[in-house]
Amino acid sequence: MSLQPKGPGGRQGFATLSLEYPMSLGVFEKYVDAQKAVDTLSDNQFPVENCLIVGTDLKQMERVTARLTWGRVALGGLLSGVWLGLFVGLILSLFARPSNPLTLLLYTALYGAVFGLVWSLVGYAFTRGARDFSSVSQVVATRYEVFCEHKFAQQGRQILAEAGIGVGVGGHGSAPMTPPQAPPTPPAAPSGTDQQGPPPAG
Fold this sequence. Notes:
Layout: E1 22-28, H1 31-43, E2 51-67, H2 70-95, H3 101-127, E3 133-149, H4 153-162
Antiparallel strand pairs: 1-3, 2-3
Helix pairs in contact: 2-3
Region (Disordered): 172-202
Domain General stress protein 17M-like: 25-100
Transmembrane segments: 73-96, 102-126
């Protein structure tokens, strides 16, 4: 994986999310392993402000939490509407300064509950049973690659190697290869055996 060098026209807000000439220190399957590698570099006085952790091979995970029913949908809409009404009532009480702020909060909570109830039931009716479950989703990475500036790459690899932190295959952070084995030496011929070919025919 490679990262493009930061150009002069780059956005100022993303200056900390880019490196000039990045080189890979290694690829890890879990974020905690990549975090441990950077923490090890930091403990060894490595300039970690030149490091970058990049998640690659993104995938979306969705965890089903419950089965949806009309009652569950109505209760969820009611509660969310109450919270929304209380929030609006609080804002109004700060700027409008009513004579009785508590009454205002009660009315806005009631109106919010009715609005949330109707909105949730209408929205659920439009799905027509196509999604009768609730869930939470999250986008996660399957691999995490640690980069650093090219001028600190050799120092970073040496620190990780001395700490015994193994890295996966990826970019310049590949694990060291085992040297090839020499081919086996053929066995020596027994002594006293004629090494020449058969005698010529007479």
